[in-house]
Design brief:
The protein has 82 residues and is mostly beta strands. The protein is built from 2 helices and 5 strands; from the N terminus they run βββαβαβ. The N and C termini lie close together (7 Å).
Length: 82
């Protein structure tokens, strides 16, 4: 069966209320937070028991582009792999 491989590069201005971040640390903190909550966190914290931006990742890039305020794809390639 063939596969469709999509390669893309671009940017978007994400709506902080519509994107979510997921915790990737073992600290005691909410597993998911909104972009608005994430923006209120410090970038990093020397006290490794407190939540900070560095302990979260964007949950879904596709959702960020789908709900974006503005954005642009600079490059999109579609390839078929047999």
């Amino acid at each position: 069966m063939s596969k469709i491989m999509v390669s893309a590069a671009g940017w978007c201005e994400a709506d902080p209320d519509k994107v979510r971040f997921q915790l990737v640390s073992k600290i005691e903190a909410p597993e998911y937070i909104t972009g608005t909550e994430w923006l209120k966190l410090p970038e990093y914290d020397e006290d490794e028991t407190k939540p900070c931006r560095d302990y979260y990742i964007l949950e879904c890039v596709g959702k960020a582009f789908d709900t974006a305020i503005d954005g642009e794809y600079n490059h999109v390639d579609i390839e078929v792999e047999e």
